[in-house]
Design goal:
Blueprint lengths: L1 E7 L1 H5 L3 H11 L2 E9 L2 H7 L9 H8 L3 E9 L2 H9 L12 H5 L8 E3 L3 H11 L12 H6 L2
Antiparallel strand pairs: 1-3, 1-4, 2-3
Bound molecules: adenosine-3',5'-cyclic-monophosphate.
Adenosine-3',5'-cyclic-monophosphate binds next to loops.
Amino acid sequence: MERTFTALKPDAVKRNLMGRIIQRIEEKGYKIIGMKLMDVPHELAEKHYAEHKGKPFYPRLIDYITSGPVLAMVLEGDNVIMGLRHIVGKTNPDEAEAGSIRADFCTVKEYNIIHASDSKESAEREINLWFKKEEICTDYKTALEFLMGN
Ligand code: CMP
């Protein structure tokens, strides 16, 4: 089982889109094992986007992610890193496939509404950056799975 990190950015929260995006994640079959709504400290934003430091859009990236609450999540599932990237869609909403989250819910690349880790290394780094070990629910089961002893 693979894990990934995803964050619904401030516009997703402010535009009341959280539920619809979470629904897509759940319906796909990914398990949410960590979730928190938080104002992002400047230092965390800088660490998260460290690879973009120096790029022209970097200051706006930091301003945006710190402009309101972010819903941070850890997901678990089979091939979840690439699978989630597929349902999230390309960075530029104009180029994202119709039906993807970015194509359907946002219009501006710099202010897209969701982030998803792009590799195993990024997922591990970002999960550790945003979540403490005890904030991740590692082993929960449905009542049926519990009864069956799975
Ligand atoms: P995200 O998945 O959060 O990761 C980095 C973010 O930088 C990305 O979403 C976009 O919001 C933004 N971004 C990436 N490339 C560009 C670009 N060429 N121009 C403007 N913004 C970009």
